[in-house]
Amino acid sequence: MTSPLTGVVNVGADMFADAVEAQAVPVERVDWRPPMAGTEADLAAVATDPRRDAANRRAVEAMLGVTATLVDVAPASEVLGLEPGQFLHAGPPIEWSRASGPLRGALMGGAALEGLVDDPEDAVALFEDGGSVTLEPCHHRSAVGPMAGVVTPSMWMFVLEDAETGRRTHCSLNEGLGKVLRYGAYGPDVLERLRWMSAVLGPLLRAGVRSADPVDVTGILTQMLQMGDEAHNRNRAGTLMLMRDLAPAMVTSGADASDVAAALRFIGGNDHFFLNLAMPACKLALDAARDIEGSTMVVAMARNGTDFGIQVSGTGDEWFTGPAQVADGLFLGDYGPDDANADIGDSAITETAGIGGFAMATAPAIVRLVGGTVPDALATTRRMHEITLAENPRWSVPVLEFQGTPTGIDVTRVCRTGILPQINTGMAGREAGVGQVGAGLVTPPAEIFPSALAALAARVPN
Question: Which of 53, 99, 271, 324 could form a disulfide with 103 if both were Cys (CB 3.0 to 4.6 A apart)?
C-alpha cells in the first residue's frame, strides 16, 4: 500500500505547485532561477578558488569591525586638497561629453560658486574646453556625494574616522530636497544657499563637532533603524539625533544667535540631513574590506547619471560599468517618467553596506515616497539575504525578529540567482537646472555582475 503524500517541494514554475495544492497537499515553494547566462564557467572557476571563503570572511569581519565617528567639518580644499578648477562627482569616471543633464547642471553651478564664471550657463564652454578643469569621482578621494555628488574646493565636508585605524571618509553637507545643486539645479537661490552653508552652517557645525562629545555615527545608524529610518531616503530620526548631539555646543559656541537659530532651523527642517553622514559611514566600513585577494564582496556601487559602476574587494580599484537605469516610482507635481534622468549618485553605498533598500523592512513608511507596498518592503529585505554573505548584528530589523540586515553583496550569489541589489533613490530631472522630479526603486544593470565575475575568475590561481 502506498504511503499518503505528506508534502511537496516545488522548484521553479508555479503551475505544478498550484495543481498539488488544489489536492490539499502542502507545498513548499522554492524561488530557484538558473544562473545568469554565460556565467557557468566563471562560477565554476571562482567556486574552486581556495582563497574565497577565508577572503570573504575577512572582508565581512573588516567591514563589521569599523566604527565611524564624526571628528570634524571643514572645507574640501583643506581635507581633500581640492584646488580651483578641480571637481569631484558621483559614480565611476566620466567626461563632460558623456555627462548627464543633472551632472552637467551641478558642475555648472559649482563653477559659478567657485567664481570660475559669473553665469552658470557660461560654464558649458569651460567644461567643453577642459583645459582648466578636471573631473574625478568622489570615491577616488575617500569621499562620497549624493546624486550628482559635485564637490568644489569651497564646499564644507563632514569628516568621519575609524578610531582603530585612523582611516577617514568625507561627504558634503546636505542642501535639502527639490531645486538643489545635487539634483542639477543652479539658479540664484541654489547658489545663495550654498554660500550661506559655507559661510555660516559649516563653521557652526565645526564648532559644535570640535567641542561636543564624539558623535558615534555608527551608533546613530543602529538606533535609527529601530525608529523607522532605513538611512537612505528616510533619515528623520537620524537627523534629529544628530541635532540633539550638536545643538548644545552650537548654542554655546559664541556665534551670533540668529545664525545659530538659522542653522538649527535648517537642519531640523531637512529630514535628509543625516544622509550625508550615513553615506561616508558606510564607505568607511566598506573601504576596510577592499583589496582582499579572492574576495567576491562588492565594496562600492555608484552612478553618475550615465553609467552604473561597482567595485569588488578582490579586483582592486577596477570599475565594472553598464548603463544606469531609470527608477520606477512616484513623481512630483506634473513630472513623469519622460522627465527623469537615469539613476545617479554615490548614495547606493548605503545598500552596499546593507541598509537603504536592503533595510526597507525597518521603514515601511518609505513606500509612500518611493512606491510599492509594505509587503514589498518586507519581501525586499528577505530577498537581499539571498545575495549577501552575512548579517550585520549592529543593524537589525525589529519586524523580522531583529534579524540583522543583509550585508556583503556577493558577486557569485548575484550571478547564480539572478537577483539584483534593490536600491531606493531620488530622481533628478534629465535636463540641467530642473532639480528633483521624484523618487523610486531601481536595480543595477545586470551585465556588470558577470563582468566582475569574469575578472575574479581570471585571478584564480592555477
Answer: 99
Residue 4 has pLDDT above 60, yes or no: no
What does the alpha-carbon distance between residue 305 and residue 92 come to, in Å, rounded to a whole number? 10
List b or e across 93-131, with b for residues whose CB sees 16 or more CB atoms inside 10 angstroms: bbebeebbbbbbbbbbbbbbbbebbeebeebbebbeeee
Interior CA angle at 160 toward 231 and 217, to 5°? 40
pTM given for the model: 0.92
CB-based contact 312:408 (threshold 8 Å): no
Write the CATH number of the domain with boundaries 40-63+291-458: 3.90.1700.10
- Crossing angle (nearest 10°) for helices 275-287 and 217-225: 110
| H-only helix segments in 187-235 | 188-196, 202-211, 217-225
Could you give the CA distance from residue 391 to residue 55 in angstroms, rounded to a whole number?
17
Contacts for 357 with CB less than 8 Å, ≥ 6 apart: 230, 232, 350, 351, 380, 384, 421, 422, 423, 424, 441
Give the rounded distance of the alpha carbon of 70 from its chain centre: 18
Distance in angstroms (rounded) separating the CA atoms of residues 302 and 289: 17
Contacts of 310 (CB under 8 A, 6+ apart): 298, 300, 301, 302, 319, 320, 444, 448, 449, 452
CATH code for 64-280?
3.90.1710.10
Closest CA to 188 of 197, 201, 179: 179
Backbone dihedral region for residue 46 (phi beyond 0: left; psi -120 to 50: alpha; all else: beta)? alpha
* Domain map (residue ranges) of the chain: 1-28, 40-63+291-458, 64-280
Q: 227 Cβ partners below 8 Å, 6+ apart?
A: 237
Report how far residue 225's alpha carbon sits from residue 405's, in angstroms, rounded to the nearest whole number: 10
Query: Which three three-digit cell numbers place residue 243?
Result: 541635532
For the chain, give the percent of residues with pLDDT over 90.
Answer: 88
Q: Which residue has the cell 528623520?
A: 236
d(C-alpha 235, C-alpha 228), whole Å: 9
- Identify whether the C-beta of residue 394 lies closer than 8 Å to the C-beta of residue 223: no
Do residues 80 and 157 make contact, with C-beta atoms less than 8 angstroms apart? Answer: yes
For 139-143, what is the mean pLDDT? Answer: 98
The 10s digit of each residue's pLDDT in 398-435 is 999 999 999 999 999 999 999 999 999 999 999 999 99
Instruction: Please give the distance of CA 367 from its chain centroid, rounded to a whole number.
Output: 18
Residue 13: pLDDT over 60: no
Amino acid identity, position 164? E
Handedness of CA 93, 98, 101, 107 (dihedral sign): positive
